[in-house]
Each structure stands twice: as structure tokens, then as C-alpha cells.
UniProtKB/TrEMBL annotation:
<comment type="similarity">
    <text>Belongs to the SRP14 family.</text>
</comment>
<dbReference type="Pfam" id="PF02290">
    <property type="entry name" value="SRP14"/>
</dbReference>
<dbReference type="InterPro" id="IPR003210">
    <property type="entry name" value="Signal_recog_particle_SRP14"/>
</dbReference>
<keyword id="KW-0733">Signal recognition particle</keyword>
<dbReference type="InterPro" id="IPR009018">
    <property type="entry name" value="Signal_recog_particle_SRP9/14"/>
</dbReference>
<dbReference type="GO" id="GO:0005786">
    <property type="term" value="C:signal recognition particle, endoplasmic reticulum targeting"/>
</dbReference>
<comment type="function">
    <text>Component of the signal recognition particle (SRP) complex, a ribonucleoprotein complex that mediates the cotranslational targeting of secretory and membrane proteins to the endoplasmic reticulum (ER). SRP9 together with SRP14 and the Alu portion of the SRP RNA, constitutes the elongation arrest domain of SRP. The complex of SRP9 and SRP14 is required for SRP RNA binding.</text>
</comment>
<dbReference type="GO" id="GO:0030942">
    <property type="term" value="F:endoplasmic reticulum signal peptide binding"/>
</dbReference>
<keyword id="KW-0687">Ribonucleoprotein</keyword>
<protein>
    <recommendedName>
        <fullName>Signal recognition particle 14 kDa protein</fullName>
    </recommendedName>
</protein>
<dbReference type="GO" id="GO:0008312">
    <property type="term" value="F:7S RNA binding"/>
</dbReference>
<keyword id="KW-0694">RNA-binding</keyword>
<keyword id="KW-0963">Cytoplasm</keyword>
<comment type="subunit">
    <text>Heterodimer with SRP9; binds RNA as heterodimer. Component of a signal recognition particle (SRP) complex that consists of a 7SL RNA molecule of 300 nucleotides and six protein subunits: SRP72, SRP68, SRP54, SRP19, SRP14 and SRP9.</text>
</comment>
<dbReference type="GO" id="GO:0006614">
    <property type="term" value="P:SRP-dependent cotranslational protein targeting to membrane"/>
</dbReference>
Length: 107
């Protein structure tokens, strides 16, 4: 997994979306990030760790390539939301046939 800066992450994410436009999918996950790079210690060990500020880890993957970035909250979400809106036009519509079958079965 490649940890990128915010601007380079957005450009790489755009490239992932363009590559997967005809076939494939892009998976995006957001997670709270406290700055730790190692697992949390067990109960027997008392080590005080205070996160500096609120951060968010954003990951994106197309199955082959994985990219990620860490952003401080609140981050400028305008560029991120515009990118998602521009590339969400290929979503499939839900099939409505199953609802009509249920109503006919109850009659």
C-alpha cells in the first residue's frame, strides 16, 4: 500500500476511476486514524498514548493497486466530493421486479 500526500492521492484516485470505468470497481474506505503504526499494547502494559489531533485514513483499491492518505479533520472535502460525484455515474439501478412479485403472491 502506498501512502500519498492529499493532492497526489486525488490524482491517483482519478486515474483509478478512469481505469475502472468500463469494467471493474474501486473500493474506498475511511477510518479514524490515531497515528499509531504498531498494534495497541496488551492490558498488562500501561503505555499512555495520546493522539495529537483527529485524523482520517482514506484507502482506495481496484483489486490490484492500493493507495492511501492520512488527512487531518476537518479536511477540505470539496475536491474529494467533486471527484466522487464525477465518477459515480456508472452505478447500476435497482431491479424493481421483486417488489411486484411479492404483492402478487399475497393476493
Amino acid at each position: 500500500m502506498v501512502l500519498l500526500e492529499n493532492d497526489s492521492f486525488l490524482t491517483e484516485l482519478t486515474q483509478l476511476f478512469q481505469k475502472c470505468r468500463t469494467s471493474g470497481s474501486v473500493v474506498i474506505t475511511l477510518k479514524k486514524y490515531d497515528g499509531r503504526t504498531k498494534p495497541a499494547p496488551r492490558k498488562g502494559h500501561t503505555e499512555s498514548f495520546e493522539p495529537a489531533d483527529n485524523k482520517c485514513l482514506i484507502r482506495a483499491s481496484d483489486g490490484k493497486k492500493k493507495i492511501s492518505t492520512v488527512v487531518s479533520l476537518p479536511f477540505p472535502q470539496f475536491a474529494y466530493s467533486n471527484l466522487l460525484r464525477a465518477h459515480m455515474d456508472g452505478l447500476k439501478k435497482k431491479d424493481k421486479k421483486s417488489k411486484s412479485k411479492k404483492t402478487k403472491a399475497t393476493q
